[in-house]
Amino acid sequence: MPRPAFRPNRQNIARFLTSSETRALIERKTRAAERAAAAASEADGQFRTDIETGDERVRGAVIGDYSTSDPEVSRRALLRGLDGARSTE
Q1: Euclidean distance between CA atoms 13 and 88, whole angstroms
Q2: Cα radius of gyration rounded to whole Å, the chain
Q3: Three-state SS across the chain?
Q4: Which of 8, 48, 76, 87 could form a disulfide with 63 if both were Cys (CB 3.0 to 4.6 A apart)?
Q5: Each residue of 13-35: pLDDT tens digit?
Q6: In the beta sheet, which residues pair with residue 60?
Q7: How far does Cα 46 stand from its chain's mean position?
Q8: Whether 62 contacts 45, CB under 8 Å
Q9: Rounded Cα distance, 19 and 10, in Å
Q10: pTM of the full structure
Q11: Are 37 and 78 in contact (CB under 8 A)?
Q12: Which residues of the chain carry a pLDDT beneath 50?
C-alpha cells in the first residue's frame, strides 16, 4: 500500500512565518532568553538581542556575553537562557 504524499502549503507557511503574531512571539521569547541568560551569567551579563524580519521569515537571536572573554561562561549563560524562555508565552 503506497504512503500518502505530504504536500506543504507553502503560501500559508510563508504567511505564518512573516505574520505580526509570529514576530511578537519570537520577540517575546528572544527577550526572555536574553533576560534569563543575563541573570544566569557569571560575569556582568551583557548580551545583545537581534530580531530580524526578512521576506521569508522572522528570526530572533541572543548573541554572546560581551562582559567576558571566556566563551564557556557565555555558552553556559546562553543555555540557561534557553531554559528561561520556555516558560514565556
Answers
A1: 23
A2: 17
A3: CCCCCCCCCHHHHHHHHCCHHHHHHHHHHHHHHHHHHHHHCCCCCCCEEEEEECCCCEEEEEECCCCCCCHHHHHHHHHHHHHHHHCCC
A4: 48
A5: 888 888 999 999 999 999 999 98
A6: 51
A7: 17
A8: no
A9: 14
A10: 0.76
A11: yes
A12: none
**What φ, ψ does residue 42 adopt, rounded to 5°?**
-80, -15
Provide the grid cell at 45. 551579563
φ, ψ of residue 72 in degrees (nearest 5): -70, -40
With CA atoms as reference, report the closest residue to 88 among 24, 40, 16: 24
The vertex-57 CA angle with 54 and 62, nearest 5°, equals 85
H helices, E strands: number in the chain = 3, 2
What's the pLDDT score for residue 27? Answer: 92
- Cα dihedral across residues 17, 22, 24, 30: positive or negative: negative
Report helix, strand or coil for 89: coil
Cβ pair 25, 59 in contact under 8 A = no
Q: How confident is the model at residue 80, as a pLDDT?
A: 86
